[in-house]
Design goal:
The complex is a heterodimer of chains A (148) and B (661). Chain A has 148 residues and is α+β, with helices and mostly antiparallel strands. Chain A is 30% helix and 29% strand. Chain B has three domains: 1-163, Four Helix Bundle (Hemerythrin (Met), subunit A), CATH 1.20.120; 168-343 and 380-388, Four Helix Bundle (Hemerythrin (Met), subunit A) (Up-down Bundle); 492-645, no CATH class. The longest helix of chain B is centred in the middle third of the chain and has 33 residues, at 349-381. Classes of the chains: A alpha+beta (148), B alpha+beta (661). The interface between A and B is large, with 45 and 56 residues.
Chain lengths: 148, 661
């Protein structure tokens, strides 16, 4: 092979690998991403029952119910609407009433939400960024430190 | 009286001036052939290190003596904190960690200045100038947006304390290692830019870039492994990798750096792939900068939540654009002047290394897309999404798998023109053993996922392939054992290092496959006295009691671990509440054996006096960190190679040097 042919075969080989990888990435992106929603835009948008989504908001004060067993249920609210979330497992250390939480799971036919993942983050003033922005867009007044 | 932190602040500003000098004067000197100006870069680099070390020392002093007149100390420290965490608290926050970043940068710069006597003067001057420009940008960033020496008047009596989940020995040293890796890639970057300015790349250049990249790669490997180990036992989620944006930010430069240490070999040995290696050097450091940007700007939601300030994000983005954009433009302009080197057939050692590079870069690209796609989509459409582990399993796995299969083969291909059939024949024993492992796993695990035997066979293939590589080099069993031993001792350390590092990859793969397929997870509510099976073990919750520590209090649960009737261990899982923040953390109860861990987490109280518990049996999980350690050891062996200790040969003595146009 001449230098040119060798270079060409290298470039073509590289492009083939890159093409395959691009296809793989696009396929994976179309199938595996999860959208983030707040309780009130759950009603506005067309989230189908059984579709995997992230639901974020504040844990409603006085809504946390423990049991039976390792089951916990709590209300996730964006102050406009509230969705009841049930979760079987250990809650993160920073899960507290009145504070920000992001849950991942599926919407049920009765309008409740079954989560398999619950994320609660860092300091006392912390509010999930997605939530702070959604709430601001809806004109909800936020306390100091929200969205940090 | 001038306080220590004032001296630190002053030293920091002086360092900024020195960085400006280090950037401009040696570069100008190299263009004009002015020896004195070129030499001045050396003293500037050393002075820069001294000044930044003074600033860093001053900040550390403020932390150790709990000087609450410094805002940074107030916000991140507490007088009751153990000394280790007072020290690690220096870099456990945004400002201090940026200071650590420039300190490590200055360390590398001074190392090039002091140990680079055998580098051509012009190259050294240019490399130091590029280093200086990076230092200048980040020192400006610190002084303008993230000054760690901001004072408070009047000083408060007590500080806010360090985030308790960061108060951990593994995490105390995770940032210095990770940064040493990130910043170490700046050397390869500086060499690449200097080479573009000079318009030549040769074996001597590669012989310099290789060890520096290897050092950075080793630090990055250890840093990532430490972070992974920390998240495994400290976060209490039982996982070792979450495809969190910040984890990805460290994985991307690691992948490209891995590609770079392989392609630099080709430049050194065969004088080929020069343009590509220069591009990789630029990309590796660019991804380090992207990583710094992702972590420091807070544009991505992540478990690493430092306080976020949009001004800082914009500043780092600007640095990013200048360095990445600038170096890539320079590359586009100057790269065509680099002479193409040696020819090679597609099936050859070079060819296999090209494929290695291609797959590593594509894997890095897949991670890049998965990490930044949410950000891009939100900016463009306003939709908020998250890309989770399923995406990465689907993309990263299939890209890396062929690479793993190729690793042992590549080592058996000859330079320039290889014979794939011959390589396979010489590897037959490793192949048979790997297939045997696959068959055994399949037999033991008939109903398990198909990935189990395949994954374990791949892991075995890597390990046996590495052994076969060394065995072939010493002609094991073909000559008397004593001769083989002599050959082994006489083998270049880098050859052994390569095999060791590849075996480390195999060990790591085995751990990853085992835990992802055979982990046992139990979530259960237990009252004191009750037990639950976890795999072949039984765990009894014996009860809980109060807990007091130096800066926390809480509850501790006691668990008895049994296998059959045999009592193995008593485990403790703690729920700590830290003063003064009131922040809760959980300590995991861990029973470690070579074949896996039993992992016990005590959760919240539920109904009827029970507590929710989460337990795992994580089979072979420690192979993951063992594998990383073995990879590190491989790097260490390579770096100790005589050729690097003696240093790169002078250019004049290099036969492969290509003269400038």
């Amino acid at each position: 092979m001449t230098r040119k042919q060798k270079r060409l075969s290298l470039i073509l080989g590289g492009l083939a690998v890159l093409g395959l990888a691009t296809g793989l990435v696009l396929y994976a992106l179309s199938g595996t991403i999860t959208f983030f929603h707040t309780p009130s835009d759950l009603a506005d948008t067309h989230v189908q029952v059984g579709q995997r989504i992230r639901l974020g908001g504040m844990v409603e004060k006085g809504s946390v119910k423990k049991g039976p067993g390792t089951l916990t249920s709590f209300g996730v609210t964006d102050t406009l609407k509230t969705v009841t979330v049930s979760y079987d497992g250990i809650l993160p250390d920073l899960f507290r009433e009145g504070q920000g939480v992001v849950t991942e799971g599926r919407l049920q036919p009765d309008g409740s939400f079954v989560a398999d993942t619950v994320l609660a983050k860092h300091d006392e003033n912390y509010m999930p960024r997605e939530l702070a922005e959604s709430l601001k867009a809806k004109g909800v007044k936020l306390g100091k430190g929200a969205g940090q | 009286m001038i306080s220590v932190s004032e001296i630190g602040h002053f030293a920091l500003i002086l360092a900024l001036g020195v960085a400006l000098f280090q950037f401009v004067v040696p570069l100008w000197g190299a263009q004009r052939g002015d020896v004195a100006a070129m030499r001045s870069g050396i003293s500037a680099a050393v002075l820069q290190l001294i000044l930044i070390a003074i600033a860093f020392g001053a900040l550390m002093h403020a932390y150790i003596v709990s000087d609450f007149s410094v805002l940074n100390v107030v916000e991140n420290s507490h007088s009751a904190k153990p000394l280790l965490y007072k020290i690690s608290g220096v870099w456990g926050n945004h400002e201090g960690s940026m200071l650590l970043w420039v300190l490590i940068l200055a360390l590398y710069g001074a190392a090039v200045a002091l140990f680079g006597q055998n580098l051509p003067l012009e190259l050294r001057a240019r490399v130091l100038a590029i280093q200086g420009s990076i230092g200048l940008a980040f020192l400006l960033f610190i002084v303008l947006t993230s000054n760690p020496f901001t004072r408070v008047d009047p000083p408060p009596i007590e500080g806010n304390g360090l985030n308790p989940i960061l108060q951990d020995p593994a995490l105390a040293f995770h940032p210095p290692f990770l940064y040493s890796g990130y910043v170490g890639l700046s050397i390869a970057f500086a060499f690449a830019v200097a080479a573009l300015i000079e318009g030549r790349v040769d074996a001597a250049w590669a012989r310099w870039v290789r060890p520096w990249t290897l050092v950075a790669w080793m630090f990055l490997t250890v840093g990532i492994a430490m972070g992974s180990w920390w998240s495994y036992y400290e976060l209490g989620w039982g996982g070792y990798w979450f495809w969190d944006p910040v984890e990805n930010a460290s994985l991307m430069p690691w992948l490209v750096a891995t590609a770079l240490i392989h392609s630099a070999v080709v430049v050194e040995k065969r004088n080929a792939l020069k343009i590509w290696t220069v591009l990789l050097s630029i990309l590796a450091f660019s991804l380090s900068l992207v990583g710094t940007f992702l972590v420091r700007s807070g544009v991505l939601t992540s478990v690493h939540a430092f306080a976020v300030d949009p001004q800082r994000g914009a500043f780092i983005l600007m640095i990013l654009c200048v360095f990445i954009g600038g170096s890539l433009s320079l590359f586009a302009w100057r790269a065509p002047q680099l002479k193409a080197g040696g020819l090679f057939a597609p099936v050859s050692r070079e060819g296999s290394l090209v494929l290695n590079n291609l797959l590593l870069c594509v894997a890095s690209l897949a991670v890049f897309v998965g990490t930044l796609y949410p950000l891009a989509l939100e900016t463009l459409t306003g939709d908020k999404i998250s890309v989770g582990p399923p995406y990465f399993d689907l993309t990263f796995g299939p890209i890396i798998l062929p690479l793993l299969l190729l690793v042992p083969l590549g080592a058996f291909l000859a330079w320039k023109r290889g014979d794939a059939g011959l390589a396979v024949r010489r590897l037959w024993l490793a192949l048979v053993l790997a297939l045997l492992v696959g068959v055994i796993v399949f037999a033991l695990n008939v109903r398990g996922p198909w990935l189990a035997p395949v994954g374990m066979a791949v892991a075995a293939w890597l390990v046996f392939g590495a052994i076969a590589d060394v065995a072939a080099k010493v002609a094991l069993f073909k000559v008397p054992l004593a001769t083989s031993w002599h050959r082994l001792v006489g083998l270049p350390r880098s050859a052994i290092g390569t095999a060791v590092a590849h075996a480390g990859v195999g060990i790591l793969v085995a751990g990853v496959i085992a835990i992802s397929l055979w982990r046992v997870e139990v979530i259960v509510a237990l009252k004191p006295g009750e037990s639950t099976p976890v795999g072949k073990y039984a765990v009894t919750f014996q009860g809980e009691g109060p807990l007091t520590g130096p800066n926390y209090s809480g509850r501790v649960g006691t668990f008895l671990l049994k296998e059959g009737d045999r009592e193995l261990a008593t485990l403790h899982s703690e729920k700590r509440i830290f003063r003064p923040s009131g922040m809760p953390t959980t300590e995991v109860g861990l029973y470690q054996t070579w074949h896996g861990d039993v992992y016990v987490v005590m959760g919240d109280e539920t109904t009827g006096g029970a507590r929710a518990m989460r337990m795992y049996y994580n089979p072979f999980v420690n192979f993951i960190w063992l594998g990383a350690a073995v990879m590190f050891a491989g790097g260490l062996l390579s770096i100790s190679d005589r050729r690097y200790r003696v240093g790169a040969p002078k250019r004049a003595a290099s036969l492969q040097a290509v003269p400038a146009e």
